[in-house]
Amino acid sequence: MEAVDNGIIEKISILAEQLPQVHRKQLLDLMATWQTDIRYAPREPYPEKIRFSVGGGNHFGHARDVSATGLFIEAAGDFELGDKVRMILTFISAPNPLRLSGTVVRKEKGGIGVRFDQRSQSQVKELGSIIAKQALIFHRK
To answer: Which positions fall inside the PilZ domain (predicted)?
Structure first.
């Protein structure tokens, strides 16, 4: 998500304060429906163990979910924002594993969020199709 200039937020706040009370309430109700966690691609569960490397170290974890833009890996480790990650993903809906690279963009107590890098785009395009097939398989069960 891109950062918004604080000046714009301040201008919107001033305009909102000038609204009549009934319209201010409507605006607040509308804002309450906005998603704070907007995804660029739908995420699907990925119930597989994943092997990945960061720096010179190899790690194992579980990918909580995956999309055509990234995934969340549940793993212990001392990872930092901006770390480069290399991984291999396998799917029951695809004959060959996908080798992807990415960057740590989110760090939580239980793991890391990884966004796939641009240089992986040919694999990422294939991944979108694989995820759709994978979703069909898992949603039928």
So the answer is: 39-132
* Residue 1 clears pLDDT 60, i.e. is over it: no
Q: What is the DSSP string of 26-72?
A: HHHHHHHHS-SS--SS--EE--SEEEEEETTEEEEEEEEEE-SSEEE
- Please count the CA atoms within 13 angstroms of the CA of 8 that sit on its side-chain side: 3
Measured distance CA(18)–CA(23) in Å, rounded: 10
Q: Which residue has the tokens 């979703």?
A: 135
β-strands 44-45, 57-66: how paired? antiparallel
Q: Which amino acid is at 7?
A: G
Positive or negative, the Cα torsion across 41, 47, 51, 54? positive
Question: CATH: 2.40.10.220, 3.40.350.10, 3.40.50.10070, 2.40.50.140. Which one for 44-140?
Answer: 2.40.10.220
Name residue, tokens 């694989």: 130
User: What DSSP string runs through 112-134?
Assistant: EEEEEPGGGHHHHHHHHHHHHHH
